[in-house]
């Protein structure tokens, strides 16, 4: 059951691209429009937002402040795996611009790996769960398992 039908893969990839475009336009209403009402999101520092409204409010706040100039770049990798009927896991590796934290610390550009669970609801693929993890490049060099 791991393969994703071509039509479904295209629709999920389009949703991922749409979310990226919304992020880069700092349009968080459009960003969360790709999510289920009950979507959860865990960000890179472990904040867990429950439901599309919380995800929206958190992203809206950060896009008015520390992320107001941050851009996402074209994903290096988008891997899709079906785990059940109408459920697909997307694993995405992506680079993003740096940003400045509220205390003035400058975070350089970096890479992240995202795990996103998409579900088909009423014929539309929507994100139901997202988890964003910063890739620590030094740790990657010592990884005993290479992909």
**Pattern of helices and strands:** HHEEHEEEEEEH
Fold-level CATH name: Nuclear Transport Factor 2, Chain: A
Biggest sheet features: 6 strands, mixed
Order of strands, widest sheet: 2-1-8-7-4-3
CATH class: Alpha Beta
Number of domains: 1
Q: Roughly what fraction of the amino acids lie in strands?
A: 35-45%
Enumerate how many helices there are, as a single number.
4
Overview features:
six-stranded mixed beta sheet, 8 strands, two-stranded antiparallel sheet, single chain, 147 residues, Nuclear Transport Factor 2, Chain: A
Task: Write up this protein.
The chain is an alpha+beta fold. The protein has one domain: Nuclear Transport Factor 2, Chain: A, CATH 3.10.450.50. Helices cover 29% and strands 38% of the residues. It has 4 helices and 8 strands; from the N terminus they run ααββαββββββα. The chain has a 6-stranded mixed beta sheet with strand order 2-1-8-7-4-3. A two-stranded antiparallel ribbon has the order 5-6. The longest helix has 19 residues, at 6-24. The chain is globular and about 45 Å long. The chain starts with 5 loop residues before the first helix and ends in a 6-residue tail after the last helix.
Helices and strands, with pairings:
Layout: H1 6-24, H2 28-32, E1 35-42, E2 48-50, H3 52-64, E3 77-84, E4 87-96, E5 99-100, E6 106-107, E7 110-121, E8 124-134, H4 137-141
Parallel strand pairs: 1-8
Antiparallel strand pairs: 1-2, 3-4, 4-7, 5-6, 7-8
């Amino acid at each position: 059951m791991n393969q994703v039908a071509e039509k479904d893969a295209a629709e999920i990839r389009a949703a991922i691209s749409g979310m990226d475009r919304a992020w880069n336009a700092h349009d968080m209403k459009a960003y969360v429009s790709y999510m289920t009402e009950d979507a959860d999101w865990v960000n890179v520092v472990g904040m867990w937002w429950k439901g599309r409204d919380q995800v929206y409010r958190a992203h809206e706040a950060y896009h008015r402040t520390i992320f107001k100039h941050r851009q996402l770049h074209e994903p290096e990798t988008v891997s899709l795996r079906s785990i059940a009927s109408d459920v697909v896991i997307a694993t995405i590796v992506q680079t993003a611009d740096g940003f400045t934290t509220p205390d003035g610390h400058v975070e350089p550009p970096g890479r992240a790996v995202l795990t996103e669970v998409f579900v088909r609801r009423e014929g539309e693929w929507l994100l139901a769960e997202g988890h964003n993890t910063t890739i620590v490049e030094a740790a990657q060099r010592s990884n005993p398992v290479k992909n």
